[in-house]
Amino acid sequence: MRKLSLLIAGLTMAGISTSYAEGVLDSIVGSAEKMASTPIPVAEKGPPLPNSTENTLSLERCLSIAMAENLDLAGKVVALEGKEAAETATFRKMLPTLALSSSRSDILTSTSGGSEAESYTTSVTLTQPIYRGKSLWGGWKKAELATRQAEFDLIRQGQQLVSDVKSAWYSVLEKEQLLHSSKEAFKRLKIHESNAKAYFEVGRYWQNEVLQAQVEVAKGEQAVIEAENSLLLAKSTLNRLMRRPLSAPINVDASLEWQEMTKLSLDEAYNQARANRKDLEKSYLDMETSKWSEVTTGSSLVPKVDFTTVYSTTGLDASYHEYDATTTAKVSLTWTAWNWGQTSKEVTAAKATTRQNQLSYDDKIQGVLLEVREAYLNAQQASKKVKVLEKSLKQAEENLKVNEIRYQQQLGSATDVLDALDLRTTTRDSYISSLSSYLTALATLDLAVGYDVVGLVK
User: Which domains occur in the chain, in start order?
Assistant: First the structure.
């Protein structure tokens, strides 16, 4: 497919090797061709589930599956194929056309007194447009620009898909760790309940301590159920991006890990976005397309010149045993000299569209810069939040140890232990969620500047 090397370049910028990118591209095209010829199955009838040895997925594996199976990306490929076909068809309007016609005529009456007669005529006509102003050429250039816009759509969709898969992946890891945290907290609550019962039986504490511990155990059990459901929904989101059944198993052998943010300055991020954002380039091409629309609209008032050659045979019967053959050539000129200012108003409307697209492009630039600024500041903020919560988690861990020792020595109450345990659990969950948010913020910043998060990580 012409110009799809741009997608390979875009994926290469995402930290993916050229050979891998070419393989991904082949998978996308193959998937699009398959879907173009067969009905799209329902959601639960997606690609076959991987076997048990493939259930453990990595981020790279998820990206590979999504690139090959995602319907949004495949739709962009089909759209690009349609634009390329339309561009080719528009170009061929400038080439000569060949037409074949055949007819029979009967003379029913004649004032000359001749007898009734019939004749058969077959003609071959070759027509070549010679001059149309720039209407044909302009139409082709507009179709060419539309093809380039479809290419930019495809690349941008690929970048968006990478960001979405990364966000879903981090969400799965986050929910996995939150579930583990909930189970660990529930286990600690069960241990505390057992201790409270033991202390009550020997008369060291009131029964109220036991009842309080039992209430917290029930809350801990509910927290585990909520964490399990959140994990299932996160896996379903990732499965949807990979076009797998929502309930398909996903086993991960990874955890959230800190990644240093790049030292790229905000101004450098602006420049990267101006150079890499394909939706920005697409907006610029809208302006170029409207300029060609001005040209093609104004061409309706210029003369139209065609060259035509006709080879015609005429016979008295359909077998053409006897026939007369003629060959004619002509140059014709058609000129709409006056149409009450219709074309002038159409040109004015086209110029207004050009101006509107210019304003939209300027606004798009500002929007992109604002998006980069917001993503950049959010990433910085998330980074600082993670570091603060990391210190808070260490303090909460130590606070829990102190209160457990005080409780065992009857220097503190069960409420102190439960509060300390709740603080530790809440702080740890906040740390896990903040780390996931930070990694997602890096992916969002990467999408804002127009390439993958790998480019923002040391």
Answer: 5-92+141-301+347-456 (1.20.1600.10)
